[in-house]
């Protein structure tokens, strides 16, 4: 028996560092996943090489097998390859900010123009959309319809004036009307040709856009790479908008286009509707490209410093209903270690297709606020929130820089949660939990 134990022990010990064999095996899977996701072959090769170098010799996290650990590294590297953090639109200190949308026919330029204008309008800006695609009367009409739907002005001079002249006059119009954003829709072609590039270069030289955004259809896979390369070399682009990610594409084109041009993806199109434009989150895209629900769960688990035993303890405490605000704060802090809530939601397997969950807005400021309030309470108050009377409330609110109303809301939500736990028990909580009360029920999902 002792021998046997020793053998097992040895095996476990070997798990300490990633061996070349571990890495090689995991990388085979990763390579397939990337190629299946339509990532460019050359990009895959470079990438795999880089990850292999980083992975060999690394300590394996206790909670993972070596293979899973490699995938975790892959996930991190993919994320950083795509830009790590979200890349925002550059706003010119001297308005208007000029954004020019370029790309092949059917990529989604006109639709994205409308979506972008809508997005900016919601942020309090006053965009002007410019109909620069004069080759098809329908293209102008399409933009005008979008403008009407969104109540956003569209500048058009019909099909007889050159796009360069239209763009020039649009700038004058924007200045006169006080538009702080100008979004220029341009014509595409089925393939890149000189005529198209010349026209775009002329528009660029005339209006000096702050952002030239290349609109790429994520379904086009490998083609997206060549398109992105040509546009970047000939015209120079500042970023990408990746459309049609609501389809079943895994988004490998995104990675390839970014890898080839070095330019960040700024937005993704998630549907035909005019609010279906989202800022691009590299981490979510990495998850999508890897596309493996169970793998992602493991990555998630690895990143969570959350102690399962503690969670269990907490659940028992809750069921006994002596769950205090102190426990609650502790939970929240554990939870925060797991990373941004938005990113976390993006990592939950199957979320990609779940519209309801995706629409759910998690306000991270809410977390900060709640944390501040609880920290401003005395330990006794945290354990016995019922003693928090008027004067205590004032003190806590002052100490945390919040309003008494906020504090009341927190106390009420906490009391409701406690009541709910008592009534239904921990597991039923998810079903009963309402949207928008995430800080309370997410840790127990
Ligand atoms: P353009 O030729 O580049 O101006 O492309 P359009 O804006 O006219 O879009 C071409 C088609 O793609 C239209 O039918 C759009 O509704 C559709 N489209 C654009 N973006 C998206 C998206 O993010 N998701 C989906 N499902 N369809 C999109
Ligand atoms: Mg168009």
Automatic annotation (TrEMBL):
Alphabetically sorted, this entry's keywords are: Cytoplasm, GTP-binding, Hydrolase, Nucleotide-binding, Ribonucleoprotein, RNA-binding, Signal recognition particle
Stretches assigned to the SRP54-type proteins GTP-binding domain: 264-277
Among InterPro entries, the record links this protein to: AAA+_ATPase, P-loop_NTPase, Signal_recog_part_SRP54_M_sf, Signal_recog_particl_SRP54_hlx, Signal_recog_particle_SRP54_M, SRP, SRP54, SRP54_GTPase_dom
The record's listing under Pfam families reads: SRP54, SRP54_N, SRP_SPB
- What EC identifiers does the entry list? 3.6.5.4
| Compartment list | Cytoplasm
Chain sites annotated for binding GTP: 103-110, 185-189, 243-246
Q: Which reactions appear under catalytic activity for this entry?
A: GTP + H2O = GDP + phosphate + H(+)
Which superkingdom?
A: Bacteria
The UniProt comment on domains reads:
Composed of three domains: the N-terminal N domain, which is responsible for interactions with the ribosome, the central G domain, which binds GTP, and the C-terminal M domain, which binds the RNA and the signal sequence of the RNC.
Quaternary arrangement and interactors, per the entry? Answer: Part of the signal recognition particle protein translocation system, which is composed of SRP and FtsY.
UniProt cross-references to HAMAP family, sorted A to Z: SRP54
The family annotation for this protein states: Belongs to the GTP-binding SRP family. SRP54 subfamily.
Protein task: Involved in targeting and insertion of nascent membrane proteins into the cytoplasmic membrane. Binds to the hydrophobic signal sequence of the ribosome-nascent chain (RNC) as it emerges from the ribosomes. The SRP-RNC complex is then targeted to the cytoplasmic membrane where it interacts with the SRP receptor FtsY.
Q: What protein does this entry describe?
A: Signal recognition particle protein
């Amino acid at each position: 028996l002792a021998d046997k134990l020793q053998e097992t022990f040895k095996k476990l010990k070997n798990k300490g560092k990633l061996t070349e064999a571990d890495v090689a095996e995991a990388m085979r899977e990763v390579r397939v996943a990337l190629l299946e996701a339509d990532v460019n072959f050359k990009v895959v090769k470079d990438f795999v090489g880089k990850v292999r170098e980083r992975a060999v010799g690394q300590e394996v996290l206790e909670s993972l097998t070596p293979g899973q650990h490699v995938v975790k590294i892959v996930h991190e590297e993919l994320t950083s390859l795509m830009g790590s953090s979200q890349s925002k639109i550059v706003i010119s200190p001297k308005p208007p900010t000029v954004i020019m949308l370029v790309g092949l026919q059917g990529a989604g330029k006109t639709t994205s123009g409308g979506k972008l204008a809508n997005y900016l309008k919601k942020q309090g800006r006053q965009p002007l959309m410019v109909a620069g695609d004069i080759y098809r009367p329908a293209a102008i009409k399409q933009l005008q319809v979008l403008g009407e739907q969104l109540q956003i002005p569209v500048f058009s001079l019909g099909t007889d004036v050159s796009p360069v002249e239209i763009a020039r006059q649009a700038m004058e119009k924007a200045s006169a009307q006080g538009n702080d954003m100008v979004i220029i829709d341009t014509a595409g072609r089925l393939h890149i040709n000189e005529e198209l590039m010349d026209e775009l270069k002329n528009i660029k030289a005339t209006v000096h856009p702050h952002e030239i955004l290349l609109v790429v259809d994520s379904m086009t896979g490998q083609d997206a790479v060549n398109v992105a390369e040509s546009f970047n070399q000939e015209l120079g682009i500042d970023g990408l908008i990746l459309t049609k990610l609501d389809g079943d594409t895994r988004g490998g084109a995104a990675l390839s286009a970014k890898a080839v041009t070095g330019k960040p993806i700024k937005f993704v199109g998630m549907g035909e509707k005019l609010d279906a434009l989202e800022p691009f989150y590299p981490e979510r895209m990495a998850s999508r490209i890897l596309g493996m629900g169970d793998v992602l769960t493991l990555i998630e688990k690895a990143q969570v410093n959350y102690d399962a035993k503690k969670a269990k303890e907490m659940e028992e405490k809750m069921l006994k209903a002596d769950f205090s605000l102190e426990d609650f704060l502790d939970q929240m802090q554990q939870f925060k270690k797991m990373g941004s809530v938005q990113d976390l939601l993006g990592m939950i397997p199957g979320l990609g297709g779940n519209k309801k969950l995706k629409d759910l807005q998690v306000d991270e400021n809410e977390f900060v606020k709640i944390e501040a309030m609880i920290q401003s309470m005395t330990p006794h108050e945290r354990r016995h929130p019922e003693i928090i009377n008027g004067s205590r409330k004032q003190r806590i609110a002052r100490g945390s820089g919040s309003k008494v109303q906020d504090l009341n809301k927190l106390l009420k939500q906490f009391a409701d949660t406690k009541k709910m736990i008592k009534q239904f028990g921990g597991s039923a909580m998810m079903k009963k939990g309402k949207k928008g009360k995430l800080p309370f029920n997410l840790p127990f999902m």
